[in-house]
Amino acid sequence: MISISVSNASLVLGAKTIFRGLNWEIQHDQRIGLIGPNGAGKSSLFKLIMGEYAPEPGGTLTRAKGVTVGYLPQHPELDLTQTAFDSALAGNPRYADIQLGLHAVEERLGDPRVFGNSSALEKALAVQEKLLEEYAALGGDSYPQRVRDLLLGLGLPESDLQKKLAQLSGGQKKLVMLARLILLHPAVLMLDEPDNHLDLPGKSYLERLIQEYPGAVVIISHDRYLLDAVVTHIAEIEAGELVTFPGTYTDYILDKELRLARQEELYQIQQRAITRMEMALKRYQVWVQLSDKFASRVRAMQTRLEKVDRLNRPDLERRRMGLELNGWRGSNKVLELRGVVKTFGPRIILNGVDEILWHGERVGVVGPNGSGKSVLFRLILGQEKPEAGEIVLGPSVRVGYYAQEHETLDFEKTVLDTVRLAGNMSESRAVAFLLRYLFTYQQSQQRVGDLSGGERSRLQLALLVLSGANFLLLDEPTNNLDIASAEVLENVLADFVGTVLVISHDRYFLDRTVERILTIERGRLERHLGGYSDFLASQG
User: Fold this and answer.
1) Residues forming a β-bridge with 263
2) pLDDT above 70: percentage of residues in the chain
3) Domain 333-538 is of which CATH architecture?
4) Other C-beta atoms within 10 Å of 242: how many?
5) Topology of 1-68+186-247 in CATH?
6) Do the strands 388-393 and 333-344 form a parallel or antiparallel pair, or are they unpaired?
7) Minimal CA–CA distance to 439: which of 461, 464, 468, 466?
């Protein structure tokens, strides 16, 4: 059964055409991963389906009768005066309505005019029975506990449940909004990067929710591991066109490679045939001048050539970010932690931690949100001091830092000025440099604060290159990158002449990038050889 149908839809925002003549169907039992480069129109397509944007004349959007849609935007808008728990609890207003209804029925049943009147009593009891059935379906008295468990499962700390939403991070607000949607049970869930800022347990919990969801789910995500785990179809939007592939992300990669190879083969076959016809036509045109008997054949061949439905050459490799992290040798012992202790009030973050990183190592840092991963980075950078112990960097080590929230960037500067200052370069050189990171000249004139998350991520990577670092501290570097840019980063890190310490919840990225894992939890640091899959296997 088709839940949502998009037919011949075109979307133009300002002077930019986002897509044209797009067709798409969402079936009631599909779990679809919507992928594509940053700026391809994924979020815009969601907004069109939700009615925030209207298609150009000639396009239609149809929902099946009774189909409800729940939408998680990248930046949810909530009542910031509510606590996280109260906001999630209020996500299903029907629960509060039922409670009020039951209270009203109880008052009616206590009225002598009702319990003394068999007809009125029967009607009141029937209403009460219906409300109790609906109340039980929602979870009854255990509904608040269900809301609590959902928030905790998604990774919101117990200590944050009673905080005002205004005090929470953007990622935490997103968790609250996600919980509200799931509690509503819409027929179609549309999730725009729900996994950003989730830790590994939170991502696992999200996977189970999507796998078990009794309806259609469409998810925009750059997490290839998540897409492999949950989706039944991949929908790719690129260059204004949408193509659907059955299967997981890995199935899509294989299918697309085969399809592009076949399209290239057919294109080349057609090009050879057209070339032969054009050469024959030229010969016949010469002969026509000698004899009229070839004229009709020439006209027929010209007609055939004009009617050929010419194939477009497939784009075998779209333009990607030109990242180059060269690095250099430096000290053999890059970093040493000696009995490092760090606390916040009564809470122990690191408790006597010892660790050594050697030149050339690629090490991943994982652990629940709030366990101390970013604190470890701040200690290494000297932004905070330990209560005890030492942190020693090698004498020939230059640190390059990628910040998760882009806080190392000056949001008031333009992109161009940021690069010129960092690289001490002329305007023309800076513009040429930014082109390698997929910035147009117009984008280079923008304020950093006006860039998208993906654009800020690419800018931070460009600044890492200019820093000339040989020890990279990367805090969630793939969070806002599209899949193509994440793959570029993975390939570049494999060739980087230096050392990498990376905090990441991107399991696919960890498997491709690191050779050992450090886990931080309850003040302890533990070592595990291998990538994420090896670490997961070691946990049983």
Assistant:
1) none
2) 96
3) 3-Layer(aba) Sandwich (3.40)
4) 21
5) Rossmann fold (3.40.50)
6) antiparallel
7) 461
- For residue 472, give both structure tokens: 């990279």
Kindly calculate the radius of gyration of the chain based on its CA atoms and give it in whole angstroms. Answer: 29
Question: How does residue 540 score in pLDDT terms, banded at 50, 70 and 90?
Answer: low
In the block, residue with structure tokens 């939700």: 50
Q: What residues does 11 pair with on adjacent strands?
A: 19
Torsions phi, psi for 181 (to 5 deg): -65, -45
Nearby residues of 324 by Cβ (< 8 Å), 6 or more positions away: 465, 492
Amino acid identity at 243: V
How far apart CA 172 and CA 161 sit, in angstroms, is 10
Per-residue pLDDT band for 393 (boundaries 50, 70, 90) equals: very high
The whole-angstrom separation of Cα 205 and Cα 380 is 31
Strand, helix or coil at 499? strand
Site of tokens 């882009």: 406
What is the rounded distance in angstroms from the CA atom of residue 495 to the CA atom of residue 499? Answer: 11
Specify the amino acid at residue 328.
W
**Rounded-to-integer distance, Cα 129 and Cα 335, Å:** 67
Distance of alpha carbon 510 from alpha carbon 198, whole angstroms = 15
Q: What is the DSSP string of 505-536?
A: --HHHHHHH-SEEEEEETBEEEEEES-HHHHH
Q: Would you state the structure tokens that stand for residue 113, as one six-digit string? A: 């005019």
Specify the DSSP class assigned to residue 56.
P
Q: Which of 521, 539, 517 is nearest to 530 (CA)?
A: 517
pLDDT at 294: 65
For 24, the 3-state DSSP assignment is strand
If one counts every other C-beta atom within 10 angstroms of the C-beta of residue 304, the result is 11
* 58 and 10 Cβ atoms separated by less than 8 Å: yes
Q: How far, in Å, CA of 18 to CA of 27, rounded?
A: 24
533, 512 Cβ separation under 8 angstroms: no
